[in-house]
Amino acid sequence: MSAGVRNVVLVHGGFVDGSGWQGVYNLLRQDGFNVAVVQNPTLSLEDDVAVTRRVIDAQDGPVVLVGHSYGGVVITEAGSHDKVASLVYIAAFAPDKGESVNTLIADPPPGAPVPPILPPADGFLYLDREKFPASFAGDLPAEQAAFMADSQVPWGVDALAGTVSEPAWRHKPSWYLIAADDKMIPPPAQRAMSERAGSVTAESPGSHSVYLSQPAAVAALIKQAAE
Fold first, then answer.
1. Number of domains in the chain
2. What local confidence, expressed as pLDDT, does residue 3 receive?
3. Any idea where the AB hydrolase-1 domain is (predicted)?
4. What is the pTM of this model?
C-alpha cells in the first residue's frame, strides 16, 4: 500500500446498518487499511455524530471518513474532528450550514422519483416494504433486496431534522461517488451537492445501494482520498 492515510471509518445511512459495508470493508482490508464500521442508532443527528466521533477517537492516526446517504450528514458534522484528513460521500447528502435531510429533500426536482417513505409511526420512519427493492436496491438480487426491506432499521424523525453547524467539507478535501441510477437521492441533486462542496467526483452505475452493488468503485474512490 502506498504511503497515505491508513485508517478508514465507514458510516451507514438511514433504514440500514453497518453490515452493508462488508464488501467495501473486505476490499480495503485486502489493501492494508484499518477499517472501522460505525453502528449509528439513527435516532438523532447529535447522537450519531457523538457515536461516530467515538470511533474516530479510537483510531491511531489520520482517518478517511466515509458516509452513505444520511451518513453524509453525519460525516459533514463529525468530520471537523482533528483526526479526519478527508471526507468521502457515497450517494450521500452533503449539507451546508443550517441544512438537514428535511431541508435537502423539501423541494425535489420535477419528475424525480419520490422515496416510498411511510408516515411516521411513534417518531420513526420506514420505507414501504413492497416498494423498497425498486427504490433503494434496484440493482441487487431480489432476495437480498427483500431481506433489506424486512430488516429495516427504524429511522428517527429527529435525525432527519438535525441541522449541520459547520460543514467539514468547507475546510477539508472531499470526494463524492454519484450513483447514476439512484431513486432515493436524485443524481442531479448528488451532482449539485458534490459541486457545491468542491468534491472530486466519480460516477458509477448503481442504485442507492451502490455501496453494496459496486464495492470496487466505492473502495477505489476511498483509496484516492487516502492517498
1. 1
2. 67
3. 8-220
4. 0.97
